[in-house]
Input
Amino acid sequence: MTRERYPNSEPDPSYRDRRRQTDRLLRLKAVISRTGMPISTIYRRELAGRFPRRLRIGVRAVAWYESEIEEFIANPMGYRPSNSPARIELRGYLPPSQA
Output
């Protein structure tokens, strides 16, 4: 399947992996600068599933994929993350299905 033949279909998973190879990682200050949102709102929306998830890049460092932040900026009220697996562990938080 190609995107030209089926324009409404999702790209295959390998496409996302190839895109990730060239995707930049944005640290917290850059995300705050681009979105104009305070830290508490970013983390609250992330827990609610209405903001891209962080990627742990070190013991005390996190970042976000630039493409996901751009998707959020394009449609902040309607943003829903793709069905990608969770990339972080949130201490003390259990999703409603596991509570």
Notes: The longest strand covers residues 61-65. The helical segments are 13-22, 28-35, 39-48, 66-74.
